[in-house]
Amino acid sequence: MAKEAKMHKQHRGLSNAIAYVVLVIISIIWLFPFVCIVLQSFRSYATELGGMVDYLVPKQFSLDNYKYLFSDDCQFFRWYGNTLIIASCVAVLQTIVILCVSYALSRTRFKLRRALMNFWLVLGMFPGFLTMICLYFLLKNFGLTQSGAIPGLILISVASSGMGYYVCKGFFDTIPRSLDEAALIDGASKMRIFLTMIVPLSKPIVIYTALTAFMAPWCDYVFASYVAFGSSDNYNVAVALYRWVNTTDYQGFFTRFCAGGVLVAVPITILFMALQKYYVEGVTGGAVKG
């Protein structure tokens, strides 16, 4: 019996070791491009070739690329501010809409409720770019392209956010309805129950919803490039950085592109590191019931 237990322990230890080795290899492969971008951002165009080279570690480290981003000749922080405004507004407004829709679908019963939920679920499976041309002409008629691209991008991101109810509703379904019923007996309105009881108990899903809402416009390129084209003052970071490497001076802007990419990654990295616990709880809690 002891021998079998020992063999089982050894087998489990070997399995864990193999799993850790595989995970380490996958992590190295996944992190390698990011390490390359960080290292290339410290390579100066003045002292080395500005374009792609056949070595990874710069021969001479320099902050020239970051200094250029902070200089008056560069609009990087205007584009950074545009992206931050869009992402922050979308994160706040989209979170409010999703929470309200999810709570209504979780706690109320009405005709065609199930049909509406299924319709939204199926509709959300279609790629968003199928409506891109239609949305562009709609925004153009309201003056929300080019110089009005920032409010236009916010509007489009928030308008259909109610269809992203599924994970959030699943989390609300795990909260006992008896809490609502007890509060109703005490005379609380449904709005007060939602704000003072349900939302405080739903901190993980609120943070998960806000993070996912923030990430989408922060990394958006495809639709933003259609809406903001021709107006550099209203570019977001993704569109602006692509314009840098899509010019005749590609060699000169490649390392600056890498430096900009590093600064773009900083807020998302900090948010995920600070809120990782709640993000995981939100995903797992919302996946329990549908």
What are its keywords?
single chain; 13 helices; about 0% strand; mainly alpha; about 290 residues
Helix content: over 70%
Instruction: List low-confidence stretches.
Output: none
Largest sheet: none
Shape: flat
Content of β-strand? under 5%
Quantity of strands, as a count: 0
Multimerization state = single chain
Briefly note the structural class of the backbone. Answer: mainly alpha
Q: What is the count of DSSP helices, taking H or I runs of 4+ residues?
A: 13
Work out the radius of gyration: 24 Å
* CA(first)-CA(last) distance: 45 Å
User: What string gives the helices and strands in order?
Assistant: HHHHHHHHHHHHH
Mean pLDDT over all positions:
83
Explain how this protein is built:
- The chain has 290 residues and is an all-alpha fold.
- Helices cover 72% and strands 0% of the residues.
- The protein is flat, with a radius of gyration of 24 Å.
Write the layout of secondary structure elements.
Elements: H1 2-41, H2 64-70, H3 76-107, H4 113-123, H5 132-141, H6 149-159, H7 166-173, H8 177-185, H9 190-201, H10 203-218, H11 222-227, H12 237-245, H13 250-286
